[in-house]
Amino acid sequence: MKPPATKLPTSRLIAGNWKMNGLKVSVAELDLLLAAAPPAGAELLLCPPATLVASFARRASASHVRIGAQDCHWAQSGAHTGDISAEMLADAGASHIIVGHSERRADHGETDSMVRRKAEAVARAGCIAILCVGESLEQRDSGQTLDVISRQLEGSVPTDSVPEGLVIAYEPVWAIGTGHTPTTAQVAEVHAAIAGRMGAGFRLLYGGSVKPSNAAELLAVPHVDGALVGGASLKAGDFLAIAGAAA
Ligand code: 13P
Known about the structure:
By secondary structure, the chain is α/β, with parallel strands linked by helices. The protein has helices at residues 27-35, 50-60, 86-92, 102-108, 112-124, 137-141, 145-156, 184-198, 215-219, 236-244, and strands at residues 12-17, 42-47, 65-67, 96-99, 128-133, 166-170, 203-207, 226-229. 1,3-dihydroxyacetonephosphate binds at residues 17, 101, 171, 176-177, 207-210, 228-232.
């Protein structure tokens, strides 16, 4: 990894992943985010489904809320029916694109090498990739967590990644949508390992059942530079409360 060329922001990145949720009327939640005062010490990013990226990005332009996407194809264009390229999402106004989410790995058989090609596509399009890694419960219970994370990083992080273009999200699969979170010691162990592997400057997010009641303690863990929030990002009030915990 190259050292950072410029100083990165020290504020926390609070990113919302709406997954396959949201219709046109959901713009009301975005409007609540836009109407609220920018949270101190936090940057807000909302990743709605692809159908809403362009309209949300237009509405949030010139605001403190950035709009991202949840996945992309690795090719720039071509015969890939139903797929969306990073260039198209950048054109629609996305600043960030999530790649390698465990739900895509599970639902669509995405492998580390596919995730790497997607992360490369995100950089090519001038967006920032949020690359997700995380172990299953079975892997944690059998003591493989750090090996799994290391293998995922090895296989999916492009070799020329720079901190300005890549964020890593640690999302233990067993913590996603379950209400269960790792202990702060477990989060600290994994984040320290990722920080050691990536080198200085890369932002690391924690994701998995982050909610207003646990955000402050998770965001206080060393090497946790923000959160990737699923369910609790669907309601602006909860999302803002999580961002408020970053202060
Ligand atoms: P939950 O916050 O709903 O557990 O989802 C986490 C996640 O997968 C974010 O990408």
